[in-house]
């Protein structure tokens, strides 16, 4: 089984061929919401496809414009087993007030994750120190999705018990390749962030491309593909045990 721990299949990019995309290979997908509408769409997708696990969250980019959707998004957390997409984004958001609001929103989801025992799949773009500080002060299981920082930060997250997730862009991204080589394989996960971050620039990404990430990891670390697959599966299921229970219906 392939595991895509972070994707956005509710997006218009998949309107025409979602059925096909989800049946092209043996893959299970954690579909992350970024606002209220996509949170609800993630729940709906999961009711339609056995191999989709819904996650709800609130993307840090939306803290200014969509704050009125926060409470409803928070209350949807009780309906799912994974919290995503949440985190900090200092790359697009520069104003100190908005960054502060991002930390407050992220803290609310961290508290829910801690209280309800739910893992978080987290977006961090800029603001890595603040994100790791917040993670360090909560008892949560987590993964940093589409990790784009340096190896030192990745290892700090691993020290906190976190996983580092790699999308298929790994095949053409030297920085991510260098980071990957410095991590223990026991902390590595695969995702696609579909429709983004694919193996080919400007081509729609999709969940089955996880296979390309696994191949690349195998060649980078010099281990057999099936061994890499086995370790990554084990990692994924320790973060999100509910994936084990998904069955065709
Ligand atoms: Zn995402």
UniProtKB/TrEMBL annotation:
Pfam families: TatD_DNase. InterPro entries: Metal_Hydrolase, TatD-like. One of its GO terms (molecular function) is hydrolase activity, acting on ester bonds. A divalent metal cation 1 binds at residues 6, 8, 85, 193. Transmembrane segments: none annotated. It comes from the Archaea. Gene3D superfamilies: Metal-dependent hydrolases. Keywords: Hydrolase, Metal-binding. A divalent metal cation 2 binds at residues 123, 145. PANTHER family: D-AMINOACYL-TRNA DEACYLASE (PTHR46124:SF2). This is TatD family hydrolase. It comes from Sulfodiicoccus acidiphilus.
């Amino acid at each position: 089984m392939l595991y895509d721990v972070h994707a956005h299949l509710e997006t218009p990019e998949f309107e025409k061929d979602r059925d096909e995309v989800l049946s092209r290979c043996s893959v299970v997908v954690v579909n992350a919401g970024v606002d209220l509408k996509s949170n609800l769409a993630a729940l709906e997708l999961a009711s339609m496809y056995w191999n989709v696990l819904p996650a709800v969250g609130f993307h840090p980019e939306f803290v200014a414009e969509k704050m009125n959707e926060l409470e409803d998004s928070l209350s949807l957390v009780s309906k799912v087993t994974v919290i995503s997409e949440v985190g900090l984004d200092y790359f697009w958001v520069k104003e100190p007030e908005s960054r502060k609001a991002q930390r407050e929103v992220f803290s609310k989801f961290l508290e829910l994750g801690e209280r309800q025992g739910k893992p978080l799949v987290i977006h961090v773009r800029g603001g890595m120190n603040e994100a790791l500080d917040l993670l360090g002060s909560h008892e949560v299981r987590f993964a940093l999705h589409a990790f784009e920082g340096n190896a030192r930060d990745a290892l700090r997250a691993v020290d906190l018990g976190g996983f580092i997730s790699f999308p298929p862009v790994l095949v053409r991204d030297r920085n991510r390749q260098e980071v990957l080589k410095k991590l223990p394989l026991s902390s590595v996960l695969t995702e696609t962030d579909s429709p983004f971050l694919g193996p080919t620039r400007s081509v729609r990404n999709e969940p089955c491309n996880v296979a390309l990430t696994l191949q690349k990891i195998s060649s980078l670390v010099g281990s057999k593909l099936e061994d890499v697959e086995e370790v990554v599966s084990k990692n994924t299921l320790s973060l999100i045990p509910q994936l084990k229970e998904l069955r065709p219906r």
